[in-house]
Design goal:
eight-stranded parallel beta barrel; two-stranded antiparallel ribbon; 17% strand; alpha/beta; binds (5S)-5-amino-3-OXO-hexanoic acid; binds zinc ion; 287 residues
Length: 287
């Protein structure tokens, strides 16, 4: 009997979300917060198979910040540590004002997140006002910063597609499907399948699973042909009761899943192609 099952032989882009804005060293002492720690974790993730790092910034007290000097320092240290591609978070942290968060793209990262809707986010509120989101999308397009469209619920996908229909987003689109945030979609295979079916042809997409959903949701996403993200922003545990020793360990496990599914982790140049990034990084910031 011939094997007619669809094959997923293409490489998968693995992204490491190194620290996020919410967890603290009390939650897991391996969480990187200082710029040097974040750069060292970027290198561990790179060595384990990640070609993109998603970066949040912390101040000297370990709190989320959108400080441009901290951004330049962290990006500089990561670039010295390894050639990984850097995606800055414009989500930053729940208490940081939207306009401050938006200024981060003036440092001209290759990629940055674009959160298209406001929402309840765990115990807090994540504010992304429609006019601000439109301005940020326009500015990202002007600067050549590739937006990663963060989709925490089905309506967020509609808003992202409406921004695209207005001509505010360059093709090909790139989506993160985030499952398991309290206030967003529950982490169920049905929710993921529903969203994947609605992603426009030619767009890149990755799965983000929060907490205990991290491994199952990313595994399903890889099996469906998507890219995947893990890291200490998404889960502090390797498995129930076992804290992750760092981002490298989480990426190593995800790379193993990807290889088992015949989706080997993408190399750097493959990643640039799969995400339609220019061959070289954007010009350094003069801001
Ligand atoms: N943790 C939230 C504030 C992003 O990086 O752009 C959402 C977030 C999104 O982290
Ligand atoms: Zn983030």
């Amino acid at each position: 009997m011939p094997d007619t099952a669809p094959r997923q032989s293409a490489a998968a882009v693995l992204t490491a979300a190194l620290t996020g804005p919410i967890a603290t060293k009390q939650d897991n002492p391996a969480l990187p917060t200082a710029p040097e720690e974040i750069a060292s974790e970027a290198r561990s993730a790179w060595e384990a198979g990640a070609t993109v790092v998603h970066v949040h910034l912390r101040d000297a007290n370990g709190l989320p910040t959108a400080d441009l000097d901290v951004a330049r320092r962290v990006v500089g240290l990561i670039s010295e540590a390894c050639p990984v591609l850097i995606q800055l978070s414009t989500g930053v942290g729940l208490g940081v004002p939207f306009e401050e968060r938006s200024r981060l793209i003036e440092t001209r990262p290759a990629m940055a997140t674009l959160n298209v809707c406001s929402m309840t986010f765990g115990a807090g509120e994540f504010l992304n006002p429609p006019d601000g989101v439109r301005r940020l999308a326009v500015r990202m397009r002007e600067l050549g910063v590739k937006p990663e469209l963060e989709v925490y619920d089905t309506g967020h996908l509609d808003v992202a597609l409406a921004l695209h229909a207005e001509g505010l987003l360059a093709e090909p689109l790139q989506f993160s499907l985030v499952l398991g945030v309290r206030g967003g979609m529950a982490a169920t295979p049905e929710n993921l399948v529903h969203l994947v079916h609605r992603i426009p042809a030619g767009a890149a997409w990755q799965v983000i699973g929060i907490g205990r959903a991290n491994l199952p949701m990313t595994a399903i996403g890889l099996a469906m042909g998507g890219n995947a993200r893990t890291g200490m922003e998404d889960t502090l545990l390797l498995r129930r009761g076992v804290p992750a020793s760092g981002n490298g360990e989480l990426i190593e496990r995800l790379a193993g899943v990807a290889r088992a599914l015949e989706r080997p982790p993408a190399e750097l140049e493959e990643t640039r192609q799969l995400l339609s990034l220019p061959a070289r990084a954007a010009a350094p910031s003069t801001v």
